[in-house]
């Protein structure tokens, strides 16, 4: 036998050979599409810092979902955007609020589509924090019943999953108990378990109009330097009843996604967040990157790291590319 003895390139020679030995296969079924819903009718507002992303009124949202369903996207994650804000964030549990109305409309038109609803107070509080604030402090325990109330409201509207993103301690248990007591034992919880205090969220805060009016969220979101703490957070959420756990953001935390998957073997979601989206869009606009190639590479990397579900603003575009 001549040197070199081992030639990995043999299996790279043809596209069909490469396909036969491919270890990770990204599919449309892996993608969850995050959407921003606003009040009014015939509203389609572009988000300046996220080219290609819009805030939709419910009627416009339904039109957008026609193609998403045809492409085979399995579900959406809804975020409400409203001017109705107060210190408690009471619009979060308003049965006639924009998110419950969107859920009812989607389930009536597309009953097979999985609808997840983000559960947090920050889009609805006048201070922009994710919990009850007293003397400049975000209070944990008084926030829990409010989050639970919002989750039940979304379940009543027809949500299949509720997704608490607030990072209050004990909120998964509070929500699980409230859902069960209200007769919604089959509604699942997709918990933002390892949500980091990341610099990649800037464009989202513009889109959701949820930036804090004072301070920051480092007292309740995780330190980006920590990985072992993420495993602790995930373990606690699973003990409290989470059905799916999430790591957010995705790209700077691929190691955490892998550790969570290896440690627990439970369904893992990863959020390819607004800043990650905006960077690729900006570089592609300048001609510095091939957008399609980079997006599919990034999403494949997130799946390879261990994510079962990838929440991404690229969902619809990626679905088109994958279907072709």
UniProtKB/TrEMBL annotation:
Pfam families xrefs: ALAD (PF00490)
Chain positions recorded as 5-aminolevulinate 1 binding sites: 205, 217
Binding site for Zn(2+): 120, 122, 130
Protein family (similarity comment): Belongs to the ALAD family.
Reaction it catalyzes: 2 5-aminolevulinate = porphobilinogen + 2 H2O + H(+)
UniProt subunit comment: Homooctamer.
CDD domains: ALAD_PBGS (cd00384)
Keyword vocabulary terms for this entry: Heme biosynthesis, Lyase, Magnesium, Metal-binding, Porphyrin biosynthesis, Zinc
Recorded metabolic or biological pathway in which this protein acts: Porphyrin-containing compound metabolism; protoporphyrin-IX biosynthesis; coproporphyrinogen-III from 5-aminolevulinate: step 1/4
Name of protein: Delta-aminolevulinic acid dehydratase
InterPro entries the record matches: ALAD, ALAD_AS, Aldolase_TIM
EC number: 4.2.1.24
GO cellular component: cytosol
Cofactor(s) the record lists: Zn(2+)
Enzyme class, UniProt record, top EC level: lyase
Role description: Catalyzes an early step in the biosynthesis of tetrapyrroles. Binds two molecules of 5-aminolevulinate per subunit, each at a distinct site, and catalyzes their condensation to form porphobilinogen.
Binding site for 5-aminolevulinate 2: 274, 313
Record bears the keyword Lyase: yes
Domain of life of the source: Bacteria
Residues noted as binding Mg(2+) in the record, renumbered to the chain: 233
PROSITE patterns per the UniProt record, alphabetical: D_ALA_DEHYDRATASE
Catalytic residues in the record: 195 (schiff-base intermediate with substrate), 248 (schiff-base intermediate with substrate)
GO BP terms: protoporphyrinogen IX biosynthetic process
GO molecular function, one term: porphobilinogen synthase activity
Keyword Zinc carried by entry: yes
């Amino acid at each position: 036998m001549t040197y070199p003895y081992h030639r990995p390139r043999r299996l790279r020679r043809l596209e069909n050979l490469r396909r036969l030995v491919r270890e990770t296969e990204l599919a449309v079924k892996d993608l969850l599409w995050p959407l921003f819903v606003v009040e009014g009718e015939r509203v389609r507002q572009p988000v300046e810092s996220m080219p290609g992303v819009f805030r939709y009124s419910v009627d416009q949202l339904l039109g957008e979902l026609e193609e998403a369903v045809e492409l085979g996207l399995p579900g959406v994650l809804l975020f409400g955007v409203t001017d109705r804000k107060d210190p408690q964030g009471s619009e979060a549990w308003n049965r006639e609020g924009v998110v419950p109305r969107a859920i009812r409309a989607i389930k009536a038109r597309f009953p097979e589509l999985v609808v997840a609803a983000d559960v947090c107070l920050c889009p609805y509080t006048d201070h922009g924090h994710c919990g009850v604030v007293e003397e400049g402090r975000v209070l944990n325990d008084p926030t829990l019943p409010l989050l639970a109330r919002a989750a039940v409201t979304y379940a009543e509207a027809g949500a299949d999953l509720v997704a608490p993103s607030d990072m209050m301690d004990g909120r998964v248990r509070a929500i699980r108990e409230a859902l069960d007591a209200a007769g919604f034992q089959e509604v699942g919880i997709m918990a933002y378990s390892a949500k980091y205090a990341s610099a990649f969220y800037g464009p989202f805060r513009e889109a959701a109009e949820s930036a804090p009016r004072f301070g920051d969220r480092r007292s309740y979101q995780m330190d980006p330097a920590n990985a072992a703490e993420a495993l602790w957070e995930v373990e606690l959420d699973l003990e409290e009843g989470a059905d799916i756990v999430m790591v957010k953001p995705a790209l700077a935390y691929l190691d955490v996604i892998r550790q969570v998957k290896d440690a627990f073997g439970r369904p893992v979601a990863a959020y390819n967040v607004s800043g990650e989206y905006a960077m690729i869009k900006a570089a592609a606009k300048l001609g510095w990157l091939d957008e399609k190639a980079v997006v599919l590479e990034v999403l494949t990397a997130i799946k390879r790291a261990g994510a079962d579900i990838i929440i991404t603003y690229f969902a619809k575009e990626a679905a088109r590319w994958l279907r072709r």
